[in-house]
Design a protein that fits this description.
single chain; 758 residues; mainly alpha; Serine Threonine Protein Phosphatase 5, Tetratricopeptide repeat; 5 domains; 73% helix; 0% strand
């Protein structure tokens, strides 16, 4: 019987195999081989080779526009960096090239990474999200490029002096210096600057073609294929008529001006580009497509359609029309075109994978919902404001597009059940429009799919609390806390819901439920709300006849001097709600009466007392004497000014409590006295301005606010206290929104939500 042959041993892969796969454009195979090599010989050299292959795959996928493959490549690189810190910088470079600046800098905040971030900022012509090290040189480079384009070479050179030797934009400084010299035929100086460029960065790649025409040694050092490409690029750049035409187009694109004059140049350049440089023709079409969105008019689209073929992903120009209409605030037409584009995607167009088309439809439907949601302001204006709008802009307020945002959010959520944003927006809309049953149904259906989604759990918990369904609110917040046990806000919400649920059961006379909930809530509620929870423990104990326990707990609660007044308040009100006998409430009532008559209380006593009063109000509970209690607490806040105790932080907390309960008149009496009392604290002039914004009436109110904000800013700038410095951004934002000498633009109508500017 013949022997069976052993299976042939597969050949061991080599780095050359990976390089060959890259040459063929088989990036998947190249990455597989490089990864296998790291498993076979896990050395620094093999890991560096793996990153090199991943970088080549990243560049290739980026050129091909394969977003999913780019993301997978970055993920593989990041996993390698987590295992092998030695390659962290190389992986950080890939993240920088992809625009993921945060991840890049977390891996390696080195000069090399900063220079790649700078390259992408120039490529994109915007620096959003860039680190401070890059932002420092960004405006300098922008200014220098604008000066060069305007023919102001000397000014550009002077501006570039602001780029130092350690700047991430040093390569761009050398590039622009060389370009300026090249344009004036100063070849020696151009070569001198360009030969200092590192081949790794974008400026060297941009300078390569013109450098090849004046630096024979550089051209000879290139491989033959690269040398041929550089010569071809140089010939393209030397095409004077095309270059002049493109420069003329450049003067209009990306500027805050109409596109109408550009089409004469486009009509001259486009036919030549289509014939000689078809790839550039396509790129020009893409540039103008985007320009129409940002600065175009309806006539621009007509011109575009006579010159360029429709894009494959927008053959009927519905997307372009929709975005252009949004930019022009013609929102009813924008909605109409978005709906047509979504319908086209629903027809399974060629080139669109089914899952990608479905996700795109979900995004579009959500966008329509947002437009309909945000479009209500002009239509909701009172008549007098509509007259102001007409006089300011010489046009009536735009018509509100027709449609219900809820319908589009619902359809968006159905198409992308794993995407939470439409469900959040639909829930919020339903709550705002007072459709509680629909809101609850939306939340429960979503949580059935994603039971651990914290944002929705928090929304539902707060919704139940607003409905005064305290037991259900507690259940939901417990579910959320189980998902994230370390979240301090969730612990606060569990404590708050526990107290409210115990109090409801106490009112209903369910003593057994109270005892059980007190035991369950001890760990959380006693820490976050000691006075309120302790008062309920005392009241439950008294109701159950355990008077000795009640007295012992009560004694401990009163030991905290600053909380003693709010303890008396809670004991008095809880006793009343629980229908304790008058004799059982007598001591707490007496202490509360004494506390409310205090001629000079500590500001923290007022803060805790008002917090207790607000807790009952927030739970939807009413009792005899509730409005009188609030009046006395507000009066107590004014008496706190007579106290010799209390820091600026204590008084800030008291002022915030007053503001939360809209006690603006009392604040306008208190704040002018606190501002000079604490001359270094910016909080008090800021909140006095805020109070005037909400309550002030009469001539010159904006000037008073501006004076107070200027004083708040002066104090914040002079302070070294972090919480003072944090106020600066908000102060500046409010100061700008005033638009002195006041008028319609300083009103909530144009400033957004009342609190938003502060």
């Amino acid at each position: 019987m013949a022997r069976k042959r052993s299976p042939a041993t597969p050949p061991v892969p080599t780095p050359r195999d990976a390089e060959a796969a890259l040459q063929r454009g088989d990036f998947v195979k190249a990455v597989e081989i490089a990864k296998a090599l790291t498993n076979l010989t896990p050395t620094d050299e093999s890991h560096a080779h793996y990153v090199k292959v991943l970088a080549a795959a990243f560049e290739g996928y980026t050129r091909l526009g394969k977003v999913k493959s780019v993301v997978e490549t970055l993920k593989a690189a990041e996993e390698l960096a987590n295992r092998q810190p030695v390659v962290a910088e190389a992986v950080a470079v890939l993240h920088a090239k992809a625009g993921e600046f945060g991840k890049a800098l977390a891996l390696a905040a080195t000069p090399r990474v900063h220079r790649h971030v700078a390259d992408l900022c120039v490529r994109r012509n915007q620096a959003d999200g860039a680190p401070a090290e890059v932002l420092a040189g960004w405006s300098v480079v922008q200014t220098a490029f604008r000066q060069y384009e305007a023919g102001q070479d000397d000014a550009a050179k002077e501006t570039l002096q602001g780029i130092g030797l350690t700047s991430p934009f040093l390569e761009w400084k050398l590039f622009l210096r060389g370009l300026s010299a090249f344009a004036t035929n100063d070849t020696a100086r151009a070569v001198e600057n360009w030969q200092r460029l590192s081949a790794e960065y974008l400026p060297a790649k941009l300078a390569a073609a013109p450098r090849g025409t004046i630096d024979p040694a550089f051209l000879a050092s290139q491989i033959p294929e690269t040398a041929v490409n550089l010569r071809r690029q140089a010939e393209t750049l030397a095409s004077g008529d095309l270059l002049g035409g493109l420069r003329a187009i450049q003067k209009f694109v990306g500027r805050d001006q109409r596109l109408q004059p550009v089409w004469k140049e486009v009509e001259k350049v486009a036919p030549k580009l289509r014939t000689a440089h078809p790839k550039l023709f396509v790129k020009l079409g893409t540039v103008l497509y985007e320009a129409i969105i940002r600065q175009g008019e309806p006539t621009d689209l007509k011109k575009y359609r006579t010159i360029f073929p429709p894009p494959a992903d927008d053959p009927h120009f519905h997307r372009l029309e929709a975005m252009a209409c949004e930019g022009s605030q013609v929102l009813d037409m924008a909605v109409e075109h978005w709906q047509k584009y979504e319908a086209w995607l629903a027809g399974n167009p060629a080139g669109w994978p089914a899952d990608l088309a479905t996700r795109a439809r979900a995004l579009i439907l959500h966008r329509i919902g947002d437009i309909l949601e945000d479009a209500g302001l002009p239509a909701q204006m009172p008549k007098e404001f509509q007259q102001v709008f007409r006089s300011l802009f010489d046009t009536p307020p735009p018509a509100k597009p027709k449609g219900n945002p809820d319908d589009f959010y619902r359809r968006s959520a159905a198409l992308a059940p794993d995407w939470p944003t439409p469900a959040y927006d639909l829930f919020d809309r339903q709550v705002e429009s007072k459709a509680p049953a629909a809101a609850e149904r939306t939340a429960r259906e979503f949580l059935a799919r994603r039971p651990q989604d914290l944002p929705m759990l928090e929304r539902l918990g707060k919704f139940f609390r607003g409905q005064h369904r305290m037991a259900e609110s507690l259940d939901v917040f417990k579910q959320a806390l189980a998902t994230n046990p370390l979240d301090a806000k969730l612990r606060d919400n569990v404590g708050l819901a526990s107290i409210a649920t115990i109090r409801r059961n106490l009112i209903d006379g369910d003593l057994a439920a109270c005892e059980r909930l007190v035991a369950e809530a001890e760990e959380i509620a006693a820490k976050v709300f000691p006075a309120a929870f302790g008062s309920l423990k005392v009241t439950v104990a008294r109701k159950a006849g355990r008077n000795d326990d009640a007295a012992e707990i009560e004694s401990r609660l009163y030991a905290d001097r600053l909380r003693a007044a709010c303890v008396a308040f809670d004991l008095s009100v809880d006793g009343l709600l629980a229908k304790l006998k008058p004799a059982q409430r007598k001591a707490a009532d007496a202490r509360l009466k004494e506390a409310l008559a205090n001629p000079a209380p500590h500001p923290s006593e007022v803060y805790y007392l008002y917090g207790s009063w607000g807790m009952y109000k927030g739970e939807g509970l009413t009792y005899r004497g509730q409005p009188t209690h609030e009046k006395k607490i507000v009066a107590l806040a004014e008496n706190a000014l007579k106290s010799t105790e209390g820091t600026d932080v204590d008084f800030e907390s008291m002022v915030v409590a007053l503001f939360q309960h809209r006690q603006h008149k009392a604040m306008l009496k208190i704040l002018p006295k606190l501002t000079p009392r604490f001359p270094a604290a910016p909080f008090f002039p800021l909140f006095e301005a805020k109070t005037l914004y909400h309550e002030g009436r009469g001539y010159g109110i904006e000037y008073q606010m501006a004076r107070l904000l200027d004083e708040a800013k002066r104090r914040a700038e002079a302070s070294s206290v972090p919480r003072h410095r944090m106020l600066l951004e908000g102060i500046d934002q409010v100061r700008r929104s005033l638009n002195l000498p006041g008028g319609v633009f300083s009103s909530p109508l144009f400033g957004g939500d009342d609190d938003e500017d502060f």
